């Protein structure tokens, strides 16, 4: 029996794929491409390295990693989002031999321990019931010594900026959403409270990562804290 949070996440992303890439960028103040870029730079994809991108959505991170030569699997629990990613892959045949998309859940990955050289996930943890358990599961499928990185929305620490951020998330985003569709209106209303609730519940993401077996865990604030990049390395000795 799936939880309310899980059902909400599944329903939420059913109606979004069509305009997801463009509207998503606006919702992050246009900063989200920079945040993804910082994540890809940390991972440093190489020819032939295998990378799992969890909660891949329409595959934006997965495409960026594959474009740099890596062999990438994008995994998501939403068929609708994956359909969009696969449609884009059909229009990008040069990546077809090193990029694939699979239906699956972050909480129970269909892979053996240490399958991938690296792992990425963006905007996932607000949608799972148990972030600590989920991060442990994500780390499990990475080879010892492999890099792990996530991007998430943050809340600016500076008081004045935080006040502006609240206006943007509480008034601007719902208005923007309403101008697009009923589904985006729901996202616009949901996003701000969801971000604040998540960070209040999980104030120490690097600590959570360390407890999940990920070393060198660090958090970097991006765009005055409106975005965060968390990076680390799977504990254990690299074997290859
Ligand atoms: C906000 S979108 C982000 C998509 C993509 N990572 C990006 O940066 O554009 C969140 C994605 O997480 C997926 N998702 C949420 N919970 C998940 C879970 N437990 N397992 C797998 N995917 C999940 C949703 O289906 C959705 O595609």
Describe the overall structure.
With 240 residues, the protein is of the alpha/beta class. It has a single domain, classed as Rossmann fold. The protein is built from nine helices and seven strands; from the N terminus they run αααβαβαββαβαααββ. A seven-stranded mixed sheet has the order 3-2-1-4-5-7-6, sandwiched between helices. Strand 6 and strand 7 (227-234) form a beta hairpin. The chain is globular. Bound molecules: S-adenosylmethionine (SAM). S-adenosylmethionine (SAM) binds next to helix 1 and helix 4.
Q: What is the class in the CATH system?
A: Alpha Beta
CATH superfamily, please? Vaccinia Virus protein VP39
- Bound compounds, please? S-adenosylmethionine
Number of structural units classed as domains: 1
In DSSP terms (H or I, runs of 4 or more residues), the helix count works out at 9
Query: Which structural class matches the secondary elements?
Result: alpha/beta
Biggest sheet strand order reads: 3-2-1-4-5-7-6
Under the CATH scheme, the architecture is 3-Layer(aba) Sandwich
Main sheet specs: 7 strands, mixed
Global outline: globular
Average pLDDT figure: 91
State the CATH topology. Rossmann fold
Beta-strand fraction estimate = 15-25%
Q: pLDDT below 50 for ≥5 consecutive residues: which ranges?
A: none
* Counted beta strands: 7
Pattern of helices and strands? HHHEHEHEEHEHHHEE
Distance between the terminal alpha carbons, to the nearest Å?
40 Å
Looking at this protein, list some descriptive labels.
240 residues, alpha/beta, Rossmann fold, 46% helix, globular, binds S-adenosylmethionine
